[in-house]
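During the first year of the project, the team set up a workflow for recording each protein of interest as an amino acid sequence followed immediately by a discrete structure-token representation. This format lets reviewers and collaborators read both layers of information side by side without switching files. As required by the reporting guidelines, we include two representative entries from the current panel. The first entry is reproduced here exactly as it appears in our internal archive.
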Amino acid sequence: MTLHLQSAQSLCLLRLSAIGDVCHAVAMVQAIQRQYPHLKITWVIGKVEYQLLRHLEGVQFVIFDKSLGWRSYLQLRRALAAEKFDVLLHMQVALRATIASTMIRAKVRIGFDRARAKEGQWLVTNHQVEPLATPHVLEGFMGFAKAIGVQDLQPSWHIPVPDADVEFARGIIADTDKVMVICPAASKAERNWLPERYAAVADYAANLGYRVLLCGGPTTLEANLATRIASETRCEIENWVGRTSLTQLLAVLKQASLVIAPDTGPAHMAVTQGTPVIGLYAHSNPGRTGPYLFLDHVVSVYPEAIVKQYGQQVPWGTRAKGQDLMALITVEMVTKRIDQLSQQ
């Protein structure tokens, strides 16, 4: 069923995490804004994700800080006590999101279709999006826009970045520079490629005339991985891991010529900036979670991993399991993609 919002005045979006997913959600929000420019939009979002999107135009944010435990729900209730929304888009399948949604008053509460509405989501919604057999996460999110009558579902992004952060990035990468950025770390270590292979790809790119930068967050895992990669390279590599804010990183990714990353948030951040991404995938289906505009450039061993583990067709969102799956990706697979992009 499609709902039309010509008379609606307010909409609440519940999507707390993660970085890649909120990047997908931005495209949906901005599709809604194109059709319903009058609509007041409130987004309940995670604390880290807010740092990336806090300058988004026409959106009021309410931060859900999960580190507060049960107090985070009370804080959310207090923040929205005076609000009753015409529509809630409940876009996160997680128990904490299901509980958080009970703090949000709304007449129409839209969730995923019954097959995807896990973690009790179906108990707290009264409308569902159209079922999709094999959607990319972004397409699944666009189903919410479609459910409220949005007709132009072509994704596009405008994530504002402060001028100071733009200048910061231009100080690192000039407009004319040929730069490959490697964002080597995913949220789980098993999704990271081998450091010596990242290093071999860095050397290969340097021989093609690229400057090579390492970028990423401030965690110990990311810092250690970057140090190992830098120690393995023969070329000069610039290590910016942990030295940028999220909006500075977004600006750096925009300035880059090419990004290499596993299944991680910065890959999707680069997509929002139109920068080509070579995604490295073994555990998850890139058709579902890959860099949306650059799926043709993905290096994926996911099909082989699935066949080896299950030997048969599996549900669309099935993850392959194993600590060593990324080792199935060879240096030659990645350099082949670099050559293809360099010739375009």
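The second entry, processed by the same pipeline in the following quarter, appears below.
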Amino acid sequence: MDETPEPSENVGVPVDLGQDRPHSARMYDYYLGGKTNYRVDREAAQAVIRRFPAMPMLARVNRAFMRRAVRFLVAECRITQFLDVGSGVPAAPNLHEIAQAQEPSSRVAYVDTDPIVLAYADSLLTSSREGRTACLAADLTEPAAVFAALEKDGCLDLARPVGLSLHAVLHFVTDAQDPYAVVDGLLARLAPGSYLSVSHCTGDFAAEPWREVMDLYRGWGTPTQVRSRAAVLRFFDGLELVDPGLVVAHRWRPEPVGGPGLVGGPELVADAHASLYAGVARKL
């Protein structure tokens, strides 16, 4: 019998969880070793892994970067508000848990338009007593809708700096959707002193496998576009990149640690296996 994850009880209307077709968020959960996925997702994920065997490593590298970036923003940049757009299926530790472990008063707004993500939102709402979290429905490609949802909810004070997290999501925004205008539209509403944190898949190190992976995702109805380092760097135009700049994700301020969801220092991971650029930059 197939295992089926239980959706949140706080959802008031029926949603189509797409149990009959692969879904990128549940596939990513599978890459991470999670349980919020169905047989169709696991079979699709295995097809991807046959083309690019390092995909589970990439997913762990991405999660490890997110943890380091959030800790850096809280501890060194004094950022206590985060806007996580395209947050995906919850996976512990979630962004708010990392931020609130550093500063309990941190506030985090998760934004996603995917009913699958919203159906499992309860675990994103377990804030510390001093802080707050919210899970809002809005589309990454419509910045005005994102900020309308934020203003209605009131979780974040947009007059103060915010950490904008766009982790492993922009490669699902094609050039036809003008991803640079999308990012500019999000940044435009944030106060000076805010930060942008991005991770983005690339085919720079393994072009042919990534062409095959993109073809698979597109065949399942998920627009996908990996980008070169130069193309990812454009997302940071007009911002001040913090050291070490835009690098392969496992090389961004690495820590010599290991464990569930983590990877060791850069000497333990090949760039081709990571295939993910990452950077953090300050809005002036």
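For the second entry, the following points were noted during internal review. The chain is about 35% helix and 15% strand. The chain has a mean pLDDT of 90. Both points are flagged for discussion at the upcoming steering committee meeting.
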